[in-house]
Amino acid sequence: MNAIEITNFHKSFGPVTAVDNASLTVKPGELFGLIGPDGAGKTTLMRAICTLLLPDSGQILVNGMDTTRDVGKIRASIGYMPQRFSLYQDLSVAQNLRFFADLFQVPPEERTRRLEQLYQFSRLEPFRNRLAGDLSGGMKQKLALSCALIHTPDLLVLDEPTYGVDPVSRKEFWDILRTIQQEGTTILVSTAYMDEADQCERVALFFRGRIAGLDTPDGLRRDYPHPLYRLEGSDLRALRRFFQDIPTVHSIQLFGDALHVSFAQPPQPGDWRGWQDAVGSSLSHWEAHPPTIEDIFLDLIRSAS
After folding, report:
1. Is pLDDT of 15 > 70?
2. Residue 34: beta bridge partners?
3. SS (H, E, C) the chain
4. Over the stretch 126-154, which tens digit does the pLDDT of each residue have?
5. Per DSSP, what are the bridge partners of residue 86?
6. Which residue among 39, 78, 176, 244 sits deepest, i.e. has the most Cβ atoms within 10 Å of its Cβ?
7. Cα-based angle 252, 258, 262 (whole degrees, multiple of 5)
8. 119, pLDDT greater than 90
9. Could you give the C-alpha distances from 277 to 7, 198, 270, in angstroms and in order?
10. How far is CA 276 from CA 66, 250, 256, 268, 297, in A?
11. Is the predicted pLDDT of residue 223 greater than 70, yes or no?
């Protein structure tokens, strides 16, 4: 039995389609990512999984239970951390955790052990008496995650948990998620950061309410159909304008201090020499480059449009 099974889920808000007939499965114990920009439909799908939204059509099963019929059982079995988790700012770390332990009716004999475990992996023990409102962004996210885990859920649903968090805290957060996964918890996490796809075992690339790609990160890379090169030079704007006029160029994207250029067919050594002669120092270096998840995502949405 799958941890999550979504079949032709459709949800609209008035004239706006939020999710358009999405289908996917999440295996027990899997760390699965929903990857896509703001407004792609990730939050709508996650809220429906957590029984907070009813589908217009289609079905969602959580551990075999239907989200429209088994609401109470599903809510007792999942931990949900929304994009803006409502911590009580005027309560301490310890008071927030005790409140959610009461809310989820964690038995007294289990509570002490669970709190010690959560303090240990979140590293919040030294800050247990600090008000939640005085925590840093990364520490607030760790506290929110701990509150979602207080009742030891089978399934953890996290909506953009690393949004606005500094890079060091983002890494620590993913380390914590992998530890939780190793304990047997299934994790569904959404993010707008394309580089975080590699933290997941499988991902669904979301765009305008539809799944544009679904596979392991390595599988998505293997299926990328175009030769891709990383280009460096003194004037990337001029270089971009030049390659836009090359008939065999499929796409051009700016990535930091370089361009990613994909081709309909592999360039020959003579092509590169001719192009360098034409643009001079604007093209100083080129090399074949594996596609990033962002390259793949942009290519998939271009093909779908």
Report:
1. yes
2. 190, 204
3. CCCEEEEEEEEEECCEEEEEEEEEEECCCCEEEEECCCCCCHHHHHHHHCCCCCCCEEEEEECCEECCCCHHHHHHHEEEECCCCCCCCCCEHHHHHHHHHHHCCCCHHHHHHHHHHHHHHHCCHHHCCCEHHHCCHHHHHHHHHHHHHCCCCCEEEEECCCCCCCHHHHHHHHHHHHHHHHCCCEEEEEECCHHHHHHCCEEEEEECCEEEEEECHHHHHHCCCCCEEEEECCCHHHHHHHHHCCCCEEEEEEECCEEEEEECCCCCHHHHHHHHHHHHHHCCEEEECCCCHHHHHHHHHHHHC
4. 998 999 888 888 888 888 888 888 888 89
5. none
6. 78
7. 30
8. no
9. 54, 38, 11
10. 60, 19, 21, 13, 29
11. yes
| Tokens describing residue 287 | 């090399």
pLDDT at 169 over 90: no
118 — pLDDT class (breaks 50, 70, 90): confident
CB atoms within 10 A of CB 192: 17
Pairing of the two strands 186-191 and 202-207: unpaired
Give the residue carrying structure tokens 């700016």.
Answer: 254
- Which tokens in the block code for residue 29? 């114990």
Higher pLDDT, 105 or 41: 41
How many CA atoms lie less than 13 Å away from 88 in the CB half-sphere? 12
Mean per-residue pLDDT for 235-241? 92
